[in-house]
Amino acid sequence: MPIHQLTQVGRTSGGVVLPKGELRALGLVDEDGNVKDQPVRVTRTDTGTWEVSVIDPNDYPNAEA
User: Fold this and answer.
1) Is residue 2 situated within a structural domain?
2) 2: Cβ–Cβ under 8 A, 6 or more apart, which residues?
3) Total structural domains in the chain?
4) 27, 57, 54, 25: which is closest to 41 by C-alpha?
5) Which residues contact 12 (CB under 8 A, 6 or more apart)?
6) Is the pTM of this model over 0.85?
7) Which residue range is the domain that position 39 belongs to?
8) In a domain, 51, yes or no
9) Which residues, including other chains, have CB under 8 Å from residue 30's CB and lie 6 or more apart?
C-alpha cells in the first residue's frame, strides 16, 4: 500500500492526493484525462481515520444532511 503525503491546501485545509488510476476506474476522469468535478463526503470514522465517499451529483446538496 503506497504512502501519500498530507499537503497544505489554502490557509485552513490539508489534502491528500488520490491516485488517478483509482479515480479513472470509478469513472471520475474525463476523456481528456482531467479529474471531473464531483461531490464527495469526507467522514472521520476514528482517530486518524477518514472515509471518502463519492456522492451522486443528483443527490447533492441533499447529501449534506
Assistant:
1) no
2) 19
3) 1
4) 54
5) none
6) no
7) 7-64
8) yes
9) 36
Query: How many degrees, rounded to 5, is the angle at CA 9 between CA 5 and CA 12?
Result: 120
Q: Would you say residue 32 lies in a domain? A: yes
The DSSP H or E segment spanning 37 is none
List of residues 6+ apart from 39 with CB closer than 8 A: 54, 55, 57, 60, 63
Q: What is the pLDDT of residue 57?
A: 79
What is the 8-class DSSP label of residue 11?
T
Q: Amino acid letter at 51?
A: E
Judge whether 1 lies within some domain: no
Task: Please tell me the predicted confidence (pLDDT) of residue 62.
Answer: 62
- The C-alpha cell at 62 is 441533499
Give the residues across from 44 on adjacent strands.
Answer: 50
